Amino acid sequence: MSYSFEQHKIVGAIEADDPFWRSLEDGVLALPRCAGCHGWTWPAHHRCGQCGSWQFDWVPVKPEGYVFSYTRTRYAFDRVLERKDDVPYVTLVVELPEAGNVRLMGVLKGDETGLAIGARVRGSIDSPSAKTKFYPALRWEIEG
Length: 144
Ligand SMILES: [Zn+2]
What we know:
Layout: H1 18-25, E1 30-34, E2 56-60, E3 64-73, E4 89-96, E5 102-108, E6 120-126, E7 137-142
Parallel strand pairs: 5-7
Antiparallel strand pairs: 1-2, 3-4, 3-6, 4-5, 6-7
The structure holds zinc ion (ZN).
């Protein structure tokens, strides 16, 4: 069965990040870049916080970066019981130099060898599933 985040959107969201999720569903990481000042912005907004422009270009970005921070989940919390079989798992915050060092989160894929602040990682995209709350999921793998 195939899923799409469009059918499971978070109620009350401002939807500025919808293009991010649509691109991920198409297998592409794309991030918003202001059409006015060319600054990268994340999380997505409808208006640029630097120059006030309402126009953004969604630019494909290579899913490559460095570990900014990470945490290990050791308990299957109620809101993410879909991941209970993965516990313990690691969630990373990754900085993307190609996109002005914006930071994106994602669950670690593969083993933890080499896991450290500053480790180089490469992203891949998991299709939407019940486990990912019907959103496509960016995953990060440590490059050896
Ligand atoms: Zn701007």
